[in-house]
Each structure stands twice: as C-alpha cells, then as structure tokens.
Amino acid sequence: MNNENKMGVMPVKKLIISMSLPMMISMLVQALYNIVDSIFVSQIVGESATAGQDALTAVTLAFPLQNLMIALGSGTGVGINALLSRSLGAKKFDKSDSAANTGILLTIFNYIIFLLIGIFFVDSFINSQTDSTVISNYGVTYLTIVCCCSVALFFQMTFERLLQSTGKTFYSMLSQGTGAIINIIFDPLLIFGIGPFPELGIAGAAYATIFGQLIGTCIGLFCNLHFNKEIHFSFSKIFKFDWSTIKEIYFVGVPSILMMSIGSIMTYLMNLILGTFSSTATAVFGVYFKLQSFFFMPVFGLNNGLIPVLSYNYGARYKDRINEALHFALRLAVSIMIIGTIVFCTVPQFLLKLFNASDDMISIGIPALRIISLSFPIAGICIAMGSIFQAFSKSFYSLIVSVGRQLVVLIPVAWLFSLTGVLDLVWIAFPVAEIASLILSSIFFRKIHKNIVSTL
Fold first, then answer.
1. Which residues contact 302 (CB under 8 A, 6 or more apart)?
2. For the chain, what is the largest distance between any 2 Cα atoms, rounded to a whole number of angstroms?
3. Which residues contact 142 (CB under 8 A, 6 or more apart)?
4. What local confidence, expressed as pLDDT, does residue 165 receive?
5. Single pTM value for the model
6. Which of 59, 153, 271, 401 minimizes the number of CB atoms within 10 Å of its CB?
C-alpha cells in the first residue's frame, strides 16, 4: 500500500481538492485571459466607429475553428489521460509509457492538420459567416496566425494531460497558468504598440496567444522531464506507430473529440442564426462565451482532476472511493454554477460594459445573459456526471448527450424561435437544451453505476 499512487490511498475529498484545485485555478486564469483578451480586442480603434465591435465579432466568428483545434488536442489528451491513469492503477507500466510516447506522436499529427487548415481554408470559413469586409479581414488575419502557429497549443495540452494523469496537477497548473498570464501581459503590448512593441491590432492578439502557449509548452515539457518520474520518454518510441495504443487512446478520445467538435458546429450555426438579426447580436454571443468560461472553466478543471481519480480507482477496483468522489464533485460543480447564475442575473450591464459595449449591445446583452445563465446549475450536474463516462471508457455516452443538447435540441429550437423575429426568444433555447442534456445524462449515469460501479 505504501508504494501505491496517492490516487488509491489519499482521503477522497482531500484527493479531489488536491487534484482539482490547481486545475481549477489554472483554468480560472485561462478564463480570465479569455475575458481580458476580448476586452482588449474590443478597444481596437480603426477607420470605422465600430472597429472594436467589428474586431470582437471577428473573434467570435473565429471561435468555432479555434474550438475545433482545442477539441482535437484536448480529446486526444483525454484518451492519453484515461489509458495512462488506468494502466498505472493496474500496475501495467509498459502500457503507461506507451500511452505517453504515442501521445507525443499524435500531437505532431494534430498540428499538421491545422497548419494545412490555416494555409488553405481560413478565408472561406470566415467569409461564410459574414458579408462585412472589415469583419472578414479581422477574422482572417487572426485565425490564420492562430492555426498556422498552433504547434505550441497542441503540445501544451498534451504535456498538461500527462502531468494530470499521474496526479501532478500543480505542475499542470503552472504550465497553463503561466501561459495565460504571459498572454494577458502581451495582449495590450502587441495590440496597441506599447513601448518598443509594434502596433499590430488584432494580429497582436493572435501573436500574444501563441507566445503564451509557447511558454506554457516549455514549462510543461520541463516539468514532465524533471518531475514526472512515472512516465519514461523515448525518442525511438515516440516515432514508433504502436497501433494498439493509438486504438485505445482514440477509443476514449474520439468520442471526446466529436463531443467538443459539436460545440464548434453549434457556435458556427448560432453565428449564422444570430447574424440574421445583426452583427451586434453575434458580438453579444461572443461576449457571453467569454464570460461564461469564468464559471465553466473551473468546473472543467474539477472534471479534469476527477477523471484520473476515477480511472485509477476503477483500475484498482475501489468502489467506495469512486462513489465518494462522484458525490463530492457533483456538489462542488453545482455550487460553482449557482454562483455563476447569480452573477449573470444581478450585474449583466456591468459585465457587458467591460467589452466597450454600445447601447444597442447592452440592450441585447442584458436579457441574453440572464436567460442563458438559468441553465448553469443544470450544466454543472451534467459535467460532473459526464466525468464517469470518460473515466470508464464510455465517452460515446458523452457524445450522445452533447449531440442531443447542441444539435438535436439547441440549434433547431433557436432557429424556430428566430423565425418569430424576437431575439430574446432565441436565448431560451439554451435552458431548454440543458434540460434535455440532464435527462440523457441521468439515464446513462444510472446505467453505468448499476452495471459497472455496483459490480466492483
């Protein structure tokens, strides 16, 4: 017992906090970066009086492809994380090393895909969402840089997942948090040309993002090489195609990738629906996504810390520890999201003013934030329940829930309500979709708990 990883012996609540708190803090910093980044972008001054809002809209239009990038990197990381943690729990150390080394190879391929997308497809993607030349120019400039230089993003996510897999979430926090802070620092310097730095406008926001990711990657690599003694890297093994390991990684990873990719499809279609009202409505949607991350990101950090705990104890067949971890995480996730709902409902105008919002943007944004935030506590429940799907290699359940919520319910309901010409009705689609998500999540959660957890 003394030689066992802390995930099998530490008191569960203390373990969840120790595993999740660093990730929650780093994701809070990441959420803060998302907000601050858009705040700076909204302050861009151009030939048009609405240059800041146009730049903010452009970043919103770029988000679906950015999210797709994150989906591929994070989903691959989920597969690596689950396989590596499960292998460590079962004392299969050769398998855990294979998961780590194969993960590095997959990361390289992920970057090549988005390098090609950045070179050949960005123009058509942005122009499919807007007729404005100004917004299009902003969007193409920003997204081309982000895609073509995404190598740092992919490696940063992989190195962080490797640290999470062995319970070293403090170092994962250090990597992600430092990268986000560097990004925040360089945003105004490169956007507005402060001191010796050139004034790059929206391109500066993209370069600040890349630079932050590069610093995060370097820290993640250093921490894995010097502190992650349970993983052994080998240059020859990295470039060896271990098809069985790749298959196991993507058996868990592909549903996660598809699940997050659905978010890209959803935001793209929502951009099209809201674009029929005005570009201001699209900008409000973008602002909402930035603001909600301040509450969703900590819950996802909790989820990321919970998954290796569940995976390890599943491999070690510790039923009571699994149940205790799930119950504790569920209560914590819902508490965070209730705070989010309170904030969105009480000070929406203050939140919008952070983004240099016009009167029109405020009039659209206040009801939007209040209506959508009603779904936050329900979302917290679904995220916590979804962690067991990933930890027990049942990620396709998460995929089904995500498809049901975002494509089967949210988009059709939003489109139908948009036909009324009343924009406020479109926002109601979000709470409706979360209710559908809760129903599906509950069904799958009970099935797993009955057929797997109860039989351990």
1. 16, 20, 23, 24, 329, 332, 333, 336, 384
2. 68
3. 58, 59, 62, 202, 203, 205, 206
4. 81
5. 0.83
6. 271
